Amino acid sequence: MARVTTFVTVTVIATESLSKRFPRVTALDRLSVDVGPGVTGLVGANGAGKSTLIKILLGLSPATEGQARVLGLDVATEGAAIRERVGYMPEHDCLPPDVSATEFVVHMARMSGLPPAAARERTADTLRHVGLYEERYRPIGGYSTGMKQRVKLAQALVHDPQLVFLDEPTNGLDPVGRDDMLALIRRIHTDFGISVLVTSHLLGELERTCDHVVVIDGGKLLRSSSTTDFTQITTTLAVEVTDSDEHPDGTRAVREALTARGIAVEHGGGLPGAGHVLLLTARGEETYDVVRDVVTDLGLGLVRMEQRRHHISEVFQETGDQRKEAVGHDS
Ligand SMILES: Nc1ncnc2c1ncn2[C@@H]1O[C@H](COP(=O)(O)OP(=O)(O)OP(=O)(O)O)[C@@H](O)[C@H]1O
Q1: Same domain, 200 and 281
Q2: Which pLDDT band, with edges at 50, 70 and 90, does 182 fall under?
């Protein structure tokens, strides 16, 4: 008998027309989005609805309308089964100050159903993984913000979930602490195969960490796509040319010729120390040909013509004021 092979795209989270209305505000507004395995960023300004979505996905808060499934389980009826398989790092400080990280994480592991010996072993492994060593025996009250974030992360991981929700894990961290946390988040997926949904109000910081980014604003979906698609919507070409006797300012001559051919040159000499660099938006292969022809016709030398990858935050700056205002940017 012929064997039929089907390719199934695994959906980790699926929402369909999901809404959450509070008396004075609509926190989620008919949100339909699918999230696959890997590391996914959920980005939106403060109040966009990120935490509300996470609480619904954990089965902790009922949706007003619509449906959602997590790991194939219905959030409305299978919340307990979802929480067995999903770890949650809440946004706000929620740690008891008087106990040590070890005591707290063992307690959380026991609450998740692990027997005492396994809970202790998993706690030691997880705290080591998040980078807490001798300090793990000291009371949490004396910890830095970075150490507290690591304890919150450890308790989300200790029961070996298939998926973790991390709500603003970089909040309150300095730039070095932020980078460390983002690297740690990436390793949760690469080292253990756990899928991650991580929220942030900073679009820029997620591009290095996430495979996929979902952007929401006012509870509505603005965009959901792979990080690469985000950063390659448009390609900027950096073009550098020589001068000649005939054209002592080669850069200017090329700029004028390109403008005459209908190619907008975004900035002239915008890169540090590169007075001869032109930046222009490439629209397919033909832009390359036009630049090459223009430079040759002017009798100039082409020093370089290279693609410059966009950062996510730049893409948003270019795609309209509404999005720009909706999403915070790295400073
Ligand atoms: N229990 C609640 N009662 C009333 N309004 C709420 C409640 N929880 C959230 N909201 C409102 O819903 C909107 C979305 O809040 P939510 O906390 O989900 O946003 P967020 O994107 O996580 O932002 P932040 O990072 O600031 O928490 C906000 O306007 C908020 O004030």
Answers
A1: no
A2: very high
What ipTM was predicted for this assembly? Answer: 0.96
Q: How many domains does the chain have?
A: 2
**Whole-model pTM?**
0.74
Looking at the predicted structure, is the pLDDT value of residue 28 above 90? yes
Residue nearest to atom 24 of ligand 1 (CA): 46
Structural domain includes residue 321: no
pLDDT at 201: 82
Chain segment 94-109, per-residue pLDDT in tens: 899 999 999 999 999 9
Q: Pocket of ligand 1, candidates 20, 43, 51, 200: which has the most ligand atoms within 8 Å of its Cβ, to mutate?
A: 51
Q: How far is the CA of 196 from the centre of ligand 1 (A)?
A: 21
Ligand 1: which residues within 6 Å by Cβ? 22, 25, 27, 44, 46-52, 168
Q: Are 34 and 14 in contact (CB under 8 A)?
A: yes
Residues 49 and 188 in one domain: yes
| Full domain range(s) for residue 292 | 235-309
Contact (CB, 8 A) for 232 and 70: no
Atom of ligand 1 nearest to the CA of 54: 18
Residue 319 lies in a domain: no
User: What sign has the CA pseudo-torsion 53, 58, 61, 66?
Assistant: positive
Alpha-carbon span 13 to 2, nearest angstrom? 33
